[in-house]
Specification:
It is built from six helices and nine strands; from the N terminus they run βαβββααβαββαβαβ. It has 215 residues and is of the alpha/beta class. It has one domain: NAD(P)-binding Rossmann-like Domain (Rossmann fold, 3-Layer(aba) Sandwich), CATH 3.40.50.720. 36% of the residues are buried.
Length: 215
């Protein structure tokens, strides 16, 4: 019998690619995408549910499944402030994880960031690190945390800083000792997440930088 995958952040760079790949995953029979606004998919395997992320506890029954793929994230430009960004990148994701854990979801898969550290001077890397620490304390049977480098792909909005950085990183990746920091596409991260979901693994595992590339 196929398993149920829950996806938050399904409209983002990694999330969209992930849903498309889960549609073709033979071990998945149902994909539940939890979004703020309606987001339809052509596959009959995908069931979209509109949720209020400020009141996720009202949607606790939506977190029944075998996997929770957490691809949610925003930027300070989109959010408007660090506090608003923390709400999305930390609070929303942790609440979703709590609900999934309490409903017996076995495997939690998180898209974090290279350099995530709760003691970092960078507010972004600090919130990512704080989330990782909070997640590790939850009673999932298995936790898989992905820490990719710069993500490349077609986004709904232009991020000039990321575009410039991607050009620089593409040049730098020819240097052997910098190769592990080379940019990665959303599709590649999604592929690794699907592969990991099909395999056995440790109770808590990290996939950092070039660990995420599929050879």
């Amino acid at each position: 019998m196929g398993k149920i995958a829950i996806v938050i952040g399904a409209t983002g760079l990694v999330g969209r690619a992930l849903v498309d790949q889960l549609v073709n995953a033979e071990n998945i029979s149902k994909i539940v995408t939890l979004t703020r606004r309606s987001d339809t998919h052509l596959s009959p395997k995908v069931f979209n549910q509109i949720v209020d992320f400020d009141n996720l506890e009202r949607h606790d029954k939506s977190f029944n499944g075998d996997f929770l793929f957490s691809c949610l994230g925003t930027t300070i430009k989109q959010a408007g402030s660090i506090a608003a960004q923390r709400k999305v990148d930390l609070d929303y994701q942790f609440k979703a994880a709590q609900l999934a854990a309490s409903n017996g979801v076995d495997h939690y898969l998180l898209v974090s960031s290279s350099g995530a550290n709760e003691k970092s001077n960078s507010e972004y890397l600090k919130m990512k690190g704080e989330l990782e620490q909070k997640i590790k304390a939850l009673p999932f049977k298995r936790i898989s945390i992905f820490q990719p480098s710069l993500l490349l792909g077609q986004r709904a909005e232009l991020r000039l800083g990321e575009k410039i950085a991607s050009w620089v990183m593409i040049v730098l990746r020819v240097i052997p000792w910098l190769r592990r920091f080379r940019p990665i596409t959303g599709e590649q991260v999604a592929t690794k997440m699907v592969v990991v979901s099909k395999q056995s693994g440790r109770s808590i595992e990290f996939f950092r930088l070039d660990d995420i590339f599929i050879n």
